[in-house]
Amino acid sequence: MDALVEQLETKLRQWNPDIAEQVRQYIAYIIEMADQDALDILRSRVVEQEVLDLLDEP
User: Fold this and answer.
1) How many whole angstroms separate alpha carbon 40 and alpha carbon 15?
2) Is the Cβ–Cβ distance between 20 and 9 less than 8 Å?
3) Looking at residues 5-10, what average pLDDT do you find?
4) pTM exceeding 0.85
5) In what helix (H) or strand (E) does residue 16 lie, and over which residues does it extend?
6) Count of beta carbons in the 10 Å neighbourhood of residue 53
7) How far apart are CA 10 and CA 1, in angstroms?
8) Quick one: which of 15, 37, 44, 56 could link to 20 by a disulfide (CB 3.0–4.6 Å)?
9) CB 12 within 8 A of CB 20
10) What CA–CA distances, in Å, run from 11 to 3, 7, 20, 31, 42?
């Protein structure tokens, strides 16, 4: 985990300030959802698209 934190800190310094702020907001959201044990109920867009694709198949 320490390596991940170090990589994130490095990237936040390198990225455009607007991108870095967006990443901070996403991470804060993920932490909030994890604290509420709500991550498992969020649908991934990829999974949702796969289901839609299956429904569209003949």
Assistant:
1) 30
2) no
3) 94
4) no
5) none
6) 9
7) 14
8) 15
9) yes
10) 12, 6, 8, 19, 26
Is 41 exposed, middle or buried, given 0-12, 13-18 or 19+ CB atoms closer than 10 A? Answer: exposed
Q: Give residue 43's pLDDT band: very low, low, confident or very high (50, 70, 90).
A: low
Reported residue count of the chain is: 58
For residue 26, which of 48, 50, 42 has the smallest C-alpha distance? 42
Paired tokens of 39: 């991550």
Instruction: Locate 22 and state its tokens.
Output: 């967006």
Q: What residue type is assigned to position 55 of the chain?
A: L
